[in-house]
Amino acid sequence: MKICMIGTGYVGLVSGSCFADLGNTVLCVDKDVNKIKKLNNNEIPIYEPGLEEIVLKNFKSGRLKFTSNLSSAVKSSDIVFICVGTPTAKNGSANLKYVYEATKEISKNINKFKIIVNKSTVPVNTGDEVEKIILRRVNRKKFEVISNPEFLREGDAIRDFRFPDRIVVGTNNKLVLKIFKRIYEPLIKKGATFFSTNRRGAELIKYAANAFLATKISFINEIANLCEKTGVNVEDVAVGIGLDKRIGSRFLRAGPAYGGSCFPKDTRAITITAKKYKTNLSIINSVIKSNNNRINLLRKRVEKILLNKVKNKRITFLGVTFKANTDDMRGSTSLSMIPALNKMGAKIRYYDPTGEKKIFSNLKNVECSKNISFACYKTDLIIIHTEWDEFKSIDFKKISGKKSIKIFDMRNLYSTKDMKKKGIFYFSIGR
Length: 431
Ligand code: UDX
Ligand code: UDX
What we know:
The protein is of the alpha/beta class. It has helices at 10-21, 33-40, 51-61, 70-75, 97-107, 126-135, 157-162, 174-183, 185-189, 199-230, 234-242, 263-276, 282-305, 334-343, 372-376, 396-400, 416-421, and strands spanning 2-6, 25-29, 64-67, 79-82, 114-118, 143-147, 166-170, 193-197, 314-318, 347-351, 366-368, 381-384, 406-409, 425-428. It is globular and about 75 Å long. The site of one uridine-5'-diphosphate-xylopyranose has 18 residues, from α10.
């Protein structure tokens, strides 16, 4: 199959290179000329474990190509995936500007039958709009608009593509379904469930899935708050409830507020969709509120650990991205915590395996350290913000240069008992 991916961000680049790896010819298009230049020079613009190897392998074989020429890429393809971003608009809804712009461009280049696929996360009914836009120029028989949402976690995106729990395809067109079953056959053979429904159904599944996962996380985070007050270990609670198959053990890790490019954006967007259709998603509204409150709650906890004297204190952040194994800062708790503590007079040092973050470069007294030791040397409080593997066995006593060491471990990477034995003032989440 000849496939065109419009948008080579986290989703488009991962999906495009993985489709090429399954034997398809894939043309990845992006309006960012620099990005395309980099990719053609074998430079990978994002940090995603395993991605470079797949891109290089398929680029060399000629199955994966990068171009800014949308027109010729669409013309020569059978299937066109829309993978452009759908950021949050001012009112909290999904901004569909890029999706519609891409659609208009696609509609100018439909020279033979094409399947147009929305992989971007779009509110229910967007497929109908996309179809209407294309119909302005093109005969109905020459195209089919379908939904095939992505469920790729950053940092685990390659594995999630190759071994998905399920593949959701939204269309009523039997021929298109057959084609999609064929494309995904290698994954179905390995155990993925292929589930088809109508287009709107698939669109809503994506939002409902993300909202449910966000709910699970917020739920355990609130239980963690209760655990802290009652001398219970939240990890025991997570295991104890997760063993019930009706609940399931995954996505029950308590931590900072959930972040990323999807959960914060998608939970908000689905509540706006609900408003539009005059219904109330009160549970999801509460989850959003709970998650926002969590950032304040954690900041207050930091103040308490520092005995309410934040001014002039040196605070170290280990990891600033929203999760490990990604360079993505979108929706990270650190984005609000670092400026807030900085404003209160704290001097912040941070270390992140993916390097310095531009977003903090204008803040006075916020600096990036080259390594863990520099970051932790003579600091008043170490905050383990992100769960990178390299933070899991640090000899804090050796590197801190201080007698009294304080650590706030937001990811519960260490054992309270071990830390106590070492004489470290150790605070964690929900235990
Ligand atoms: C994706 C999805 O599209 C989004 O809906 C989902 O919720 C999260 O994942 P992501 O891949 O993370 O977004 O976005 P991003 O990394 O911002 O990449 C989007 C790419 O599309 C960029 O490289 C951008 O340059 C490109 N783009 C955008 C185009 O090529 N054309 C456009 O008109 C707009
Ligand atoms: C998410 C979806 O999981 C994925 O299917 C796709 O729709 C894109 O959005 P992503 O945001 O990349 O993926 O990462 P994910 O692993 O889901 O983590 C999101 C946030 O939840 C992170 O801040 C993470 O730290 C947090 N999280 C996750 C927890 O706090 N606890 C958990 O148990 C799991």
